[in-house]
Amino acid sequence: MGEIMKFARFSLPFYFPPIVVGDQIEGTAQIPLLCFSRVKDFKMELKTVKDGFDHATKKQKLCYSKCHETVDLIIQEIEQTLVKLQASDATAFAHHSLLLELKTKLKDMAPLSQLEGPQKDLNIALTKFARQLEKSFNPDISKAYRNVDWDFHTVNQIIASHLYRQGMFDIGDCFTNEVGEEGVAGVKSSFVEMYYILGAMKSRDLGPALKWATMNSTKLKQTGSDLELKLHRQEYIEILQKQGRDPALQYARTHLTPFFDTHQAEFSKMMGCILFAERLESSPYADLLSPTLWDKLSEELTRRFCDLQGQSFESPLSVTIAAGVQGLPTLLKLMSVMTSKKNEWQTMKQLPVPVDLDREFQFHTIFVCPVSRDQATDENPPMLMSCGHVLCKHSIHKLSKNSVKSFKCPYCPTEIDASQCKQLHF
Fold it and tell me: Phi, psi (5° rounding) for residue 349?
């Protein structure tokens, strides 16, 4: 799987436009891996392949067993004949009789007919398995390639950002030096700071995280995030457990009081912990000690950090790979149908069939005209008619004879004047 992902990581982006997967942050937080959103389907495909492999293996073992059994019988008959020949003082005629007898026995055993059946079954099983492998794992993904104009500067930045996002700073530096990209230094410094904070959180040190949250308090509030409160709450619980009531109360007066007006319920819960300071793990507030809270805090901090830096939570390169893996089978099947129309495949602006992707890969609204079945474009935008229904511009022009006369809406009896239609912007 590692080799497959390594190949996909640097190959699939060149078949699909950049879109985004999460990554593991060196033992701290984990960002969801989008490329495994269809694990269930993939397991089903692997099960089919495994069943085919098991069938071929069974036939191979049967053929092997039959061959050895037949060979052992032949060896046994030959050895018995040799013993008779060596023990016999008979004439050459007697020797000739023994050899004829051996020949008759071997003929009666019919080794060839016994071997042909299992060998034939094995060949059939292997042929079917090879076809199944080719169907499930088509190695020639170049069929789906289309000639496009690449912005290599953008592609290099996406790759470099992905490496830094994963914490692979040395590899990222090596890559940027080799391709001559100088504009990603700011991205690196941001992720260096993020990894420093996450590393400290892994050691149960919230100091760097609280310092960052305090510096960005206004921005966090503007996004509706209560991350700063959650960090202070976690620090308060740590102090209560390790130092006792008085230091925890002092910390609450200093750092938690500003949140009282907007988070009274949370504040009351934290104050309730004071009553169970020495047995918090068996109190009604035991959930505040859950190790998963640290993981959730790390994930939320990662999300908010990326947000304030203008970065997406998931890596653009990883989402590209995940979307490409999901859409590639459809493109390969389409290309196999269009093998005689390679030029058309390279020049078409819109695919003749939809490529279904899961919700996590849908980042903006797409309108498909219900009349022409064409996807809206800048040249053929969606148009709102006076009745409230929507068609693409080209369909309206066609129905109105190039805006010469009114026409009836395909979905209701309203007469439509093409000049009154308004362009929609999603």
Answer: -85, -20
pLDDT at res. 90: 60
Closest CA to 23 of 293, 361, 312: 312
Place of tokens 């300071």: 277
Dump pLDDT digits (tens) for 83-134. Answer: 877 776 666 767 778 788 888 877 776 666 667 778 888 888 888 888 877 7
Task: Please report which confidence band the pLDDT of residue 343 belongs to, taking 50, 70 and 90 as the band edges.
Answer: low
- Say which DSSP state 167 is in: T
- Determine the Cα–Cα distance for residues 29 and 299; give it in Å rounded to an integer: 5
Percent of the chain with pLDDT over 70: 83
Closest CA to 326 of 10, 2, 3, 21: 21
What are the start-end ranges of the H helices in 309-349? 316-337, 342-347
| 214, containing H or E segment | helix 207-215
Report in angstroms the alpha-carbon separations of 238 from 28, 130, 170, 289: 19, 59, 35, 9
Q: Per-residue pLDDT tens for 291-333?
A: 899 999 999 999 999 999 888 888 889 888 888 888 888 887 7
H-assigned helices in 243-391:
245-251, 264-272, 292-308, 316-337, 342-347
Tokens standing for residue 336? 């196999």
88 Rama sector, left if φ>0, alpha if ψ -120 to 50, beta otherwise: beta
Helices (H) and strands (E) in the chain, counts: 16, 5
The predicted model scores a pTM of: 0.58
Q: How far is CA 228 from the centre of its chain?
A: 32
C-alpha span between 40 and 64 (Å, rounded): 36
Give CA–CA dist 125/123, Å, rounded. Answer: 5
What pLDDT is attached to residue 216? 92
Number of Cβ atoms within 10 Å of the Cβ of 220: 20
Q: Which two tokens mark 373?
A: 């079945």
Contacts of 177 (CB under 8 A, 6+ apart): none
